[in-house]
Amino acid sequence: ALEEAISIERSTPLPLEAPDCFKVRGLEKSWADLTEDGRDFRQEIWYRTHIIVSRREGITPLEHLAEHLKQVFEEEDIEQYSPSTGHTESNCSL
Asked: What are the φ and ψ backbone dihedral angles of 9, each rounded to 5 degrees?
């Protein structure tokens, strides 16, 4: 059943425009980057994880990917700004 779901997800047409689950999170640029030059990121091995996890969570794989990207960007924003010093910090600090 899982392999069938993965096959179906990968074979449905990819929207040209950012889906609503990306738009509501302000991820239109991320969608453009993911689909640049006609790329279908759903064929890439890492997308399989989003398909599997989304089935457990009862959401679509695109919704799961959008939630994941939003969380990553929020964590990066928090890490790059240190309120105690008011300065940005390197992501390489120990």
From this structure: -60, -40
- What's the CA gap between 74 and 37, in Å, rounded? 27
87-88/81-82 β-pairing: antiparallel
Span 46-90, pLDDT tens digits: 999 999 999 999 999 999 999 999 999 998 887 766 555 454 444
Beta-carbon neighbour count of residue 29 at 10 Å? 10
Compute φ and ψ for 46, nearest 5 degrees: -65, -25
Contacts of 50 (CB under 8 A, 6+ apart): 61, 64, 65, 68
Q: Using one digit for the tens of pLDDT, what is the confidence trace for 5-48?
A: 889 888 888 888 999 999 999 999 999 999 999 899 999 999 99
* Cα 79 from chain centre: 19
Q: Model-level pTM greater than 0.90?
A: no
Helix (H, G, I), strand (E, B) or coil at 5: helix
CA triple 66-39-46, angle to 5 deg = 50
